[in-house]
């Protein structure tokens, strides 16, 4: 078994949170090692580039949601280009299009959720109660759209997700995309993690899967298996754990699962209140911008679909599609989140893409065969079946609106949990939340190691 020299902090995971923590600790003169199971950094940021496609193809995170100070700092320092998402939202069904008013209706429902409700309940229970009180079809439509939004945006199961948490995030910077700025990175999201990795690349151990953590106050021993099957151990005074909640919850012995000896106080309690949501995104590059040309029933007035940004078709397998507008390029992304995504993710990628294209053809009022003939390439990544993510991103279940706070508390000045799921400011499930959580954990480590001065930013 190979044993490395002891470091100030061992970090498990080279996603946004792990890299942010590593880079901040390094900047403050601390020694780190970052252990990463995959053969790349970035985690749930996964950007693919195809020489025939003008834009980067995002298979994980794509949007900057709301206010993103930590990401903005990197964008600025790395010289990246953020562009605002603008354009029109349309609802489409079998080739008939109408403007949606999607956010107005969704917000009408979300704003009534109660942040302080005792006892907490699920969105599903909330909607069921209101369905019996407000039967008019306009209310039913707003409820259906709110359900679609929560499943899609938060990747959540309405039967599980906490009303208290939804109410809280609806009022925060990342929670309500209808009201807030959203943006994209022209060069690709992976430039954010690549920029962070630049400072710490020599400390990152790729293809190294953590299986066990033995710890006591002031010491952590991390046992891993490398790509050749050899055991490796790392010693540190502190440990930052950034693996997704799905991995934290995996049973010992499953791929990616980590056994902590002794159990970490508060960890089970914290993660029990959190669920890993499912989402599927399929990316299609076409030979032309099909929505602008030749659709039989496309709207013609005021520019028609030339500024199409989002296309909604509630109830479909893939109920949301988007273009890259204002960048005019023949790429469409299909999205589904929540239980429908979880169900579909058990199927092979080719079948998922077939279902997606079939839906798109139906929304646009054309045929599968016609669209398939115009596809230049298609891409997806199944995050549910990926052992190192085990889902897309987290959300609090009923009674779990305080779970992230529990999980984010330092344990014995030795173990620090970070990662999107531990964000307590309503930014869980986002890159910004992950970056901020990494910085928070790094500051905790600096305090634990007895650094009296303020950290170097
Ligand atoms: C399809 C999809 C779309 C998304 N869209 C957006 C979006 O538009 N905007 C947005 O802000 N966010 C979005 N997100 C969420 C965002 O990607 C995540 O919140 C963020 O990237 C999480 O970063 P992290 O560091 O917390 O976790 P991760 O990026 O998951 O990093 C954890 C790392 O730990 C590693 N790991 C796991 N197990 C082990 C082990 N046993 N040993 C060693 N290493 C291990 C993993 O390989 C991974 O690299 C999306 C996510 C998905 C999946």
Which CATH class of one domain is shown? Answer: Alpha Beta
Number of discrete helical segments:
14
Q: If you average the pLDDT, what whole number results?
A: 93
Task: Give the number of DSSP strands.
Answer: 23
Largest sheet: 9 strands, mixed
CATH fold assignment of one domain: FAD/NAD(P)-binding domain
Instruction: Report the C-alpha radius of gyration, rounded.
Output: 22 Å
Determine the structural class based on helices, strands and strand pairing: alpha/beta
CATH superfamily of one domain: FAD/NAD(P)-binding domain
pLDDT below 50 for ≥5 consecutive residues: which ranges? 452-457
Bound molecules: flavin-adenine dinucleotide
Helix proportion: 25-40%
Which descriptor suits the 3D outline? Answer: globular
Q: What CATH architecture label of one domain applies?
A: 3-Layer(bba) Sandwich
The rounded distance between the terminal residues' Cα atoms is: 37 Å
| Percent in strands | 15-25%
Q: What key phrases describe this protein's structure?
A:
457 residues, alpha/beta, FAD/NAD(P)-binding domain, 9-stranded mixed sheet, 7-stranded mixed sheet, 14 helices, 23 strands, 23% strand, disordered C terminus, binds flavin-adenine dinucleotide
């Amino acid at each position: 078994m190979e044993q490395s020299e002891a470091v100030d902090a061992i970090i498990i995971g080279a996603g946004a949170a792990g890299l942010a923590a590593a880079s901040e600790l390094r900047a403050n003169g601390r020694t780190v090692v970052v252990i990463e199971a995959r053969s790349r950094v970035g985690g749930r940021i996964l950007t693919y580039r195809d020489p025939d496609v003008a834009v980067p193809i995002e298979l994980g995170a794509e949007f900057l949601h709301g206010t993103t100070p930590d990401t903005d700092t990197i964008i600025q320092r790395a010289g990246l280009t953020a562009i605002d998402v603008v354009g029109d939202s349309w609802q489409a069904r079998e080739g008939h299009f109408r403007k949606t008013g999607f956010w107005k209706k969704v917000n009408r429902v979300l704003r009534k959720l109660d942040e302080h409700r005792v006892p907490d309940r699920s969105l599903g229970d909330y909607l069921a109660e209101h369905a019996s009180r407000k039967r008019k079809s306009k209310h039913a439509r707003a409820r259906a759209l709110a359900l679609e939004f929560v499943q899609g945006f938060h990747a959540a199961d309405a039967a599980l997700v906490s009303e208290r948490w939804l109410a809280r995030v609806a009022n925060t910077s990342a929670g309500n995309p209808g009201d807030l700025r959203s943006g994209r990175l022209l060069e690709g999201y992976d430039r954010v993690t690549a920029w962070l990795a630049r400072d710490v690349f020599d400390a990152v151990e790729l293809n190294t899967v953590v299986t066990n953590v033995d710890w006591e106050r002031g010491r952590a021993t991390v046992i891993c298996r490398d790509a050749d099957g050899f055991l490796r151990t790392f010693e540190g005074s502190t440990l930052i754990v950034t693996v997704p909640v799905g991995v934290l919850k995996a049973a010992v012995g499953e791929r990616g699962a980590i056994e902590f000896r002794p159990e970490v106080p508060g960890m089970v309690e914290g993660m029990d209140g959190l669920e890993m949501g499912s989402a599927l995104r399929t990316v299609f590059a076409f030979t032309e911008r099909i929505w602008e040309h030749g659709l039989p029933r496309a709207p013609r007035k005021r520019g028609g679909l030339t500024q199409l940004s989002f296309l909604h078709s509630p109830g479909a397998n893939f109920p949301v599609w988007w273009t890259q507008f204002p960048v005019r390029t023949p790429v469409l992304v299909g999205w589904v989140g929540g239980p429908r995504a979880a169900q579909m993710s058990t199927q092979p990628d080719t079948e998922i893409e077939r279902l997606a294209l079939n839906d798109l053809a139906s929304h646009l009022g054309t045929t599968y065969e016609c669209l398939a003939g115009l596809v230049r390439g298609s891409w997806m990544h199944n995050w549910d079946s990926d052992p190192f993510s085990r889902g897309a991103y987290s959300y609090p279940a009923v009674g779990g609106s305080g779970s992230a706070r529990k999980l984010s508390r330092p344990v014995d000045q030795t173990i620090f949990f970070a990662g999107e799921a531990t964000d307590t400011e309503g930014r869980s499930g986002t890159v910004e939340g992950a970056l901020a959580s990494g910085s928070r954990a790094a500051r905790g480590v600096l305090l634990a190691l007895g650094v009296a001065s303020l950290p170097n930013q």
